[in-house]
User: What shape does this take?
Amino acid sequence: MSAATATSKSAGPPTHPTYDIKAVIAAALAEDAGDRGDITTLSTIPESTLATATFLAKADGVLAGLAVANMVCEMVDPSLKITWSLQDGDAVQYGVEFGVVSGSARSILVAERICLNFMQRMSGIATATAAMVAAAAGHTAK
Assistant: This one.
Protein backbone atom coordinates (compact mmCIF):
# COMPACT_ATOMS: atom_id res chain seq x y z
CA MET A 1 0.00 0.00 0.00
CA SER A 2 1.26 3.44 -0.75
CA ALA A 3 0.50 5.52 2.31
CA ALA A 4 -1.56 3.70 4.91
CA THR A 5 0.64 0.67 5.29
CA ALA A 6 -1.09 -2.69 5.30
CA THR A 7 0.32 -6.17 5.36
CA SER A 8 -2.11 -8.50 3.65
CA LYS A 9 -2.13 -10.66 0.58
CA SER A 10 -5.55 -9.37 -0.44
CA ALA A 11 -5.89 -7.24 -3.51
CA GLY A 12 -7.66 -3.90 -3.50
CA PRO A 13 -11.31 -3.77 -4.43
CA PRO A 14 -11.97 -4.17 -8.15
CA THR A 15 -12.86 -1.12 -10.17
CA HIS A 16 -16.48 -0.75 -11.15
CA PRO A 17 -17.82 1.34 -14.02
CA THR A 18 -20.69 2.86 -12.01
CA TYR A 19 -19.63 2.61 -8.37
CA ASP A 20 -16.91 4.87 -6.96
CA ILE A 21 -15.86 3.40 -3.58
CA LYS A 22 -13.66 6.41 -2.79
CA ALA A 23 -16.65 8.72 -3.24
CA VAL A 24 -18.74 6.46 -0.98
CA ILE A 25 -16.00 6.52 1.69
CA ALA A 26 -15.70 10.30 1.37
CA ALA A 27 -19.47 10.63 1.84
CA ALA A 28 -19.39 8.37 4.90
CA LEU A 29 -16.56 10.40 6.42
CA ALA A 30 -18.39 13.65 5.68
CA GLU A 31 -21.58 12.31 7.25
CA ASP A 32 -19.73 11.07 10.33
CA ALA A 33 -17.34 13.96 11.00
CA GLY A 34 -18.73 16.74 8.82
CA ASP A 35 -16.64 19.73 7.84
CA ARG A 36 -15.54 20.38 11.43
CA GLY A 37 -14.20 16.94 12.28
CA ASP A 38 -15.25 14.75 15.17
CA ILE A 39 -16.05 17.27 17.92
CA THR A 40 -15.60 14.81 20.81
CA THR A 41 -12.22 13.64 19.54
CA LEU A 42 -11.03 17.18 18.84
CA SER A 43 -12.04 18.38 22.30
CA THR A 44 -10.70 15.44 24.33
CA ILE A 45 -7.66 13.99 22.53
CA PRO A 46 -4.51 16.12 22.22
CA GLU A 47 -3.29 16.42 18.63
CA SER A 48 0.08 14.83 19.48
CA THR A 49 -1.41 11.68 21.05
CA LEU A 50 -0.36 8.44 19.37
CA ALA A 51 -2.28 5.20 19.81
CA THR A 52 -2.56 1.59 18.78
CA ALA A 53 -5.94 -0.08 18.31
CA THR A 54 -6.89 -3.65 17.51
CA PHE A 55 -9.61 -5.06 15.30
CA LEU A 56 -11.45 -7.68 17.34
CA ALA A 57 -14.04 -10.12 15.99
CA LYS A 58 -17.34 -9.67 17.83
CA ALA A 59 -18.85 -12.84 16.34
CA ASP A 60 -17.91 -15.97 14.43
CA GLY A 61 -18.05 -15.44 10.69
CA VAL A 62 -16.22 -14.76 7.44
CA LEU A 63 -13.97 -11.71 7.34
CA ALA A 64 -14.46 -9.17 4.54
CA GLY A 65 -13.70 -5.53 3.84
CA LEU A 66 -10.00 -5.25 4.63
CA ALA A 67 -9.21 -3.45 1.36
CA VAL A 68 -11.97 -0.93 2.05
CA ALA A 69 -10.67 -0.43 5.61
CA ASN A 70 -7.22 0.22 4.11
CA MET A 71 -8.75 2.83 1.80
CA VAL A 72 -10.61 4.52 4.67
CA CYS A 73 -7.43 4.80 6.72
CA GLU A 74 -5.52 6.09 3.70
CA MET A 75 -8.12 8.79 3.13
CA VAL A 76 -8.24 9.84 6.80
CA ASP A 77 -4.50 9.82 7.45
CA PRO A 78 -1.91 8.31 5.10
CA SER A 79 0.52 7.88 8.00
CA LEU A 80 -1.64 5.28 9.76
CA LYS A 81 -0.01 1.85 9.85
CA ILE A 82 -2.25 -1.19 9.48
CA THR A 83 -1.32 -4.83 9.91
CA TRP A 84 -3.76 -7.65 9.20
CA SER A 85 -3.22 -11.17 10.56
CA LEU A 86 -6.10 -12.60 8.48
CA GLN A 87 -7.30 -12.03 4.93
CA ASP A 88 -10.64 -11.36 3.29
CA GLY A 89 -12.52 -14.66 3.09
CA ASP A 90 -10.88 -16.18 6.18
CA ALA A 91 -13.06 -17.68 8.87
CA VAL A 92 -12.85 -15.73 12.11
CA GLN A 93 -13.99 -16.66 15.60
CA TYR A 94 -15.40 -14.45 18.31
CA GLY A 95 -12.67 -12.72 20.30
CA VAL A 96 -9.89 -13.10 17.72
CA GLU A 97 -7.75 -10.04 17.12
CA PHE A 98 -7.23 -9.89 13.35
CA GLY A 99 -5.70 -6.46 12.81
CA VAL A 100 -3.81 -3.58 14.38
CA VAL A 101 -3.75 0.08 13.43
CA SER A 102 -1.32 2.60 14.90
CA GLY A 103 -0.70 6.30 14.51
CA SER A 104 -2.50 9.48 15.46
CA ALA A 105 -5.19 8.74 18.06
CA ARG A 106 -7.45 11.35 16.46
CA SER A 107 -7.08 9.76 13.04
CA ILE A 108 -7.74 6.28 14.38
CA LEU A 109 -10.94 7.47 16.08
CA VAL A 110 -12.19 9.13 12.90
CA ALA A 111 -11.36 6.12 10.71
CA GLU A 112 -12.51 3.33 13.01
CA ARG A 113 -16.23 3.99 12.83
CA ILE A 114 -16.24 4.02 9.04
CA CYS A 115 -13.92 0.99 8.82
CA LEU A 116 -16.11 -0.99 11.18
CA ASN A 117 -19.34 -0.01 9.43
CA PHE A 118 -18.04 -1.26 6.08
CA MET A 119 -16.35 -4.35 7.51
CA GLN A 120 -19.38 -5.38 9.58
CA ARG A 121 -21.69 -5.08 6.57
CA MET A 122 -19.31 -6.85 4.19
CA SER A 123 -18.45 -9.59 6.71
CA GLY A 124 -22.16 -10.13 7.38
CA ILE A 125 -22.77 -10.64 3.67
CA ALA A 126 -19.76 -12.97 3.37
CA THR A 127 -20.90 -14.96 6.41
CA ALA A 128 -24.46 -15.33 5.09
CA THR A 129 -23.12 -16.36 1.69
CA ALA A 130 -20.86 -19.00 3.26
CA ALA A 131 -23.86 -20.38 5.17
CA MET A 132 -25.89 -20.63 1.96
CA VAL A 133 -23.02 -22.35 0.14
CA ALA A 134 -22.70 -24.83 3.00
CA ALA A 135 -26.45 -25.48 2.97
CA ALA A 136 -26.35 -26.15 -0.78
CA ALA A 137 -23.35 -28.47 -0.55
CA GLY A 138 -24.09 -31.94 -1.84
CA HIS A 139 -27.09 -30.85 -3.89
CA THR A 140 -27.04 -31.03 -7.66
CA ALA A 141 -28.31 -27.48 -8.16
CA LYS A 142 -26.16 -25.38 -10.51
Summary: The first helix runs from residue 21 to 33.
